Amino acid sequence: MPARRRRVVDPTAALLTAYAASARINQYLVERLPRAIWRVPPPGGKGRTIAALVAHLHNCGLRYLERTDPEGVPGELDRSRVTPAQAARALGAKGRAAVRIVGAALANGHRIVGFPHDAAQYLAYYMTHDAHHRGQIVQLARQLGHPISQQTMIGMWQWARRAAEFTFPSGAAAPGAK
Question: Where do runs of H (alpha helix) occur along the chain?
Answer without folding.
Answer: 11-32, 50-59, 62-68, 84-108, 119-143, 150-155, 159-165
